[in-house]
Amino acid sequence: MSSYQRDTLLLFVGIGVLLVVATAIGWCLKRRSKSPNSVIDNLNTRINAWWVMVAIIGVAFLLGKLAVIFLFFIASGIALREFLTLTPITRYDYWALLFAYLIALPLQYILVAMSWYGLFSIFIPVYGFLFLAILAAITGSTHNFLARTAEVQWGLMITVYSISCVPALLTLPIDYYQDRNLLLIAFLIFVVELSDVLQYVF
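The structure assignment produced for this chain is given below.
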């Protein structure tokens, strides 16, 4: 077993131990509570969700770099859909939404998979924003033009660009850290899990 595999295994064992401890605490709190408690229920729901997420991420890690990138691609697509359901969409936004889903989302992750840093770092904030404004303009509707354009632009920025920066950690050329960049993603997930679960425990 290489040192990278050992470190990855130890990290996931640590995450598993943390989840076991959190699950035990959640179970004890629920047993001690005499009446329904929304905070404890929320804690247990989050812990259960993290079990599922860690299992999915673990499988992606086993399958390699492309599986991790594909996992975050799926997460971005779901997040973009959720973001846009909260915004008022009109028939004039059809072309902008097609661009967001069928071009910007997959192309951003293809650029990440190709490790093309120079383009994936500016594709959405420069070219994506420009194309979305053009697509919103050619519909001929000026009603709420700025708001309509900004909603799709920032939906892409938050749910696609920002999330794609996680698998982009795989492309960082770090001295003496070659082929170990998956550990950076695992560390990020570990920190997010700690902050999400332990805030309720404490």
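Interim note for the steering committee: The helical segments are 3-32, 38-63, 65-85, 94-113, 117-120, 123-137, 145-164, 182-201. The CA atoms of residues 92 and 140 lie 8 Å apart.
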